[in-house]
Sequence to fold (175 residues):
Amino acid sequence: MIKVRKKPGLVMAFKFGSENPLEDYFIDLGKLRKNKESYEVFSKETRKGRGQKAEIGDFIKIDKQEDIYPVKAWDFEKNHKIISANIYLEASKIRKAFRADDLDGEIISYLFDKGLLKLLGDPDRYYMARVSSGIVYGRKDDYLLIYSEDMKGPCKYDFNFVDKEVFEKTYEILY
Fold:
């Protein structure tokens, strides 16, 4: 396990359901699909044509390459401060992360024991996980990032995979 935090800086984002023109823009690009009561987000971590689920009120972060990532409202609001329309200052909270070569410890054991994390072996689909947004897959060189601990519900950890290239651009390893 390593400890990491986001590199400080400004991020572009918008809230689902706020009639923001960026929502329509990403729908037109095919990176976002609006369903009856939720959204499907097609980020870099999307595999097999299935996007991550996001709810009305959740946020979408946009990187410099116009790749988008869903963030639960409670997490986004806790770690970001609005600067101007669609621009936020991101706080640098310390988080735990894992790579394929250091999958050990209490958190990983819990995820395996509960059936929330499985290793598939294929380098392009190395991990499979059940997260709040549905079934997601990670490559062998992706990072497994723990967003929060002691959650209520089926899993006490909020976690997901972060593409290695995205991770290296946006996170710093502390120790």
